[in-house]
């Protein structure tokens, strides 16, 4: 922790004012089910998205959409999903258009941060991006929740599960529309859930992971994020802080990537880590790279916060390079509209 960037320490002081899990563990039956597995074995289904009229925003087009989440357990306010599509305005970009699904990081409500990050990607490279609002955040925040501070552990795990399930559905929706060059991306917690989505989806996808590692459990039990967790409260029913830390580690271990398949196209995975990250250790980023053999890891000489504030160009470059490693092989074969055949599926290519 001594090598963490000073901006990461500053963020930890701010976040500690609204501790996570202030209402305890939450639904015990739900937590027990999570220990048995995430329940993501069923083939993903496309989401039915209701789109608003498009509008121009700087050098690209924006559309807002809503859908009903496939996760029935979400509270009413979180069950209606919200997303924002960033689409190229100019028609010179080749179709089928490359499209990313982007997941939000911890505490990231709304779309402003990712609009700043991915807007130039859309405008200059013609890559579309769907920005998903996380359940329990922003437009999907339940009444009584203070900001983005999730009240219980079970709600946080439900949010993570919904992020993955909804992302899988969005990928299917894009494929149904005829898009064959697809990717997932995210920063911090968003990166961890994007990585899990890439591991579970049956489709070969590009993966651009920013400041996330092999095992999300360590972010919640080590490093600066632990300053934001109310371990005192959690420990009341577990026999102390360390017992609570151990239970939290076991719960979040269900998302460890070494428990899940390697993505179908690891060569199209670019992982960006920060050498002075106080939230996600560089060792965990390196372990993810080693687990996904064929992936590329890139390092920024900054911390967790600095990666997003000062290195957006490097993050965008990683997203462009990842999607470029998926190629569409076309033949004259007749295919069913909206269903990629062997003739039109993305394939991995060596660099």
TrEMBL record:
Pfam families: ABHD18 (PF09752)
Keyword check for Repressor: no
The keyword Chloroplast appears for this protein: no
InterPro entries given in the database record: AB_hydrolase_fold, ABHD18
Domain of life from the UniProt record: Bacteria
Keywords: Hydrolase
Sample GO molecular function, one term: hydrolase activity
Xref: PANTHER family: PROTEIN ABHD18
Protein name (database record): Alpha/beta hydrolase family protein
Source organism: Pendulispora albinea
């Amino acid at each position: 922790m001594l090598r963490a960037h000073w901006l990461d320490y500053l963020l930890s002081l701010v976040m500690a004012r609204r501790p996570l899990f202030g209402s305890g563990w939450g639904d015990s039956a739900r937590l027990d089910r999570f220990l048995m597995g995430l329940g993501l074995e069923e083939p993903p289904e496309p989401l039915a998205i209701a789109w608003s009229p498009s509008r121009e925003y700087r050098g690209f087009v924006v559309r807002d959409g809503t859908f009903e989440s496939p996760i029935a357990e979400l509270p009413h306010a979180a069950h209606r999903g919200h997303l924002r599509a960033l689409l190229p305005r100019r028609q010179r970009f080749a179709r089928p258009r490359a499209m990313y699904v982007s997941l939000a990081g911890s505490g990231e409500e709304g779309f402003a941060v990712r609009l700043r990050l991915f807007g130039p990607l859309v405008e200059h490279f013609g890559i579309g991006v769907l920005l998903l609002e996380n359940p329990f955040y922003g437009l999907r925040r339940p009444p009584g929740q203070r900001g983005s501070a999730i009240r219980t552990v079970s709600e946080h795990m439900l949010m993570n599960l919904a992020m993955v399930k909804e992302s899988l559905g969005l990928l299917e929706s894009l494929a149904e529309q005829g898009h064959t060059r697809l990717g997932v991306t995210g920063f911090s917690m968003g990166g961890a859930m994007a990585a899990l989505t890439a591991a579970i989806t049956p489709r070969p996808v590009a993966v651009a992971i920013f400041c996330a590692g092999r095992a999300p459990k360590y972010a919640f039990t080590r490093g600066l994020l632990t300053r934001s967790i109310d371990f005192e409260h959690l420990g009341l029913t577990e026999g102390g802080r360390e017992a609570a830390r151990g239970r939290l580690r076991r719960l979040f271990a269900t998302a460890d990537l070494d428990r899940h398949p390697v993505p179908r196209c690891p060569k199209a995975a670019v992982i960006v880590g920060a050498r002075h990250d106080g939230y996600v250790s560089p060792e965990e980023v390196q372990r993810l790279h080693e687990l996904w053999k064929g992936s590329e890891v890139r390092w920024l000489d900054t911390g967790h916060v600095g990666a997003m504030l000062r290195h957006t160009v490097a993050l965008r470059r990683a997203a462009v390079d990842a999607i470029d490693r998926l190629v569409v092989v076309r033949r004259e074969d007749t295919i069913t509209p909206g269903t990629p055949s062997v003739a039109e599926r993305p394939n991995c290519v060596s660099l």
